[in-house]
Amino acid sequence: MSQIPFDNENPFSNLPDFIENPESRCPCVLLLDTSGSMAGRPIDELNQGLQTFAQDIKNDVLASRRVECAIITFGTSVNLACDFITADQFSPPSLSADGATPMGEAVNMAIDLIKARKQIYKQNGVAYYRPWVLLLSDGAPTDASVWPNAAARAKREQQDKSLILFAIGVSGANLAALEQFSLRPAHKLEGLKFSEFFRWLSSSLSARSRSQPGESIALEDPTKSWAVLEG
User: Fold this and answer.
1) Residue 72: beta bridge partners?
2) Angle at CA of residue 230, ends 227 and 231, nearest 5°
3) Is a pLDDT exceeding 50 seen at residue 177?
4) Is the per-residue pLDDT at 58 higher than 50?
5) CATH code, domain carrying 84
6) Domain range holding 93?
7) Has residue 151 been placed in a domain?
8) In this predicted model, what pLDDT tens digit does every residue of 87-98 receive, in sequence order?
9) What is the CB neighbour count within 10 angstroms for residue 114?
10) Which pLDDT belongs to residue 17?
């Protein structure tokens, strides 16, 4: 199982300066499928969408100081491609596609990452919003020995209000499988509208960052911009 990197010699080396930026934090983990089926135009569009997201969220001054982004990819292996960092410093990596779809392992890593981050917030007296996890895949989990327990764990975390998980299926995705991880219905991306999806995400996170921790907000209907209206 992939491990979250930790610097034992200097455990605080990657911590943000909470004194310089004491704003409440709005953590968001992007769980991105980089399996072989995403090769070609899909991964290119995903990379472009990430650039759009990074620029849009930086344009909102408050959100850029409150939103913290992390990226976990799952393909040949499960990798922490970008640890939590405030949006004003967020620079998405360039992703490539290869391998299978170890979705369960990736979800477990995301939950562990969030738990560790919450502990850092508490140790530093920083208020935080309920973390968001965006699970995006064009397939179904292939780690049969891991994903059922990971899915059950993810649902328990949501039921305990420890996080909110959104499942998004790219063309070819098994939406029923994705919904095993989420208490919410999965949405299907229309075509390859990754940029539209990430614009929706940046707008939603900006609205979230302007609210109070624990306060409910209304999100824009995704079928108006990037999701397929089914049924």
Assistant:
1) 31, 80
2) 160
3) yes
4) yes
5) 3.40.50.410
6) 30-145+165-213
7) no
8) 999 999 999 999
9) 22
10) 74
Tell which wins on pLDDT, 213 or 114: 114
23 domain-assigned: no
- Does 22 map to a domain? no
Among 147, 172, 181, smallest CA distance to 42 is for 172
Residue type, 83: D
Highest mean pLDDT: which range of 1-5, 18-22, 182-186: 182-186
Burial of residue 162, with CB atoms counted within 10 A of its CB: 0-12 exposed, 13-18 middle, 19 or more buried? middle
Site of tokens 């420890």: 162
Give the pair of three-digit tokens for residue 30: 């992007």
Q: Tokens 């569009």 appear where?
A: 45
126 confidence band (pLDDT: 50, 70, 90): very high
**For the chain, how many structural domains are there in total?**
1
Q: Which amino acid is at 150?
A: A
3-class SS string, the chain:
CCCCCCCCCCCCCCCCCCCCCCCCEEEEEEEEECCHHHCCHHHHHHHHHHHHHHHHHHCCHHHHHHEEEEEEEECCCEEEEEEEEEHHHCCCCCCCCCCCCCHHHHHHHHHHHHHHHHHHHHHCCCCECCCEEEEEECCCCCCCCCHHHHHHHHHHHHHCCCCEEEEEECCCCCHHHHHHHCCCCCEEECCCCHHHHHHHHHHHHHHHHCCCCCCCCCCCCHHHCCECCCC
Sorted by sequence, the CB contacts under 8 Å of residue 56 that are 6+ apart come out as: 198, 199, 202, 203
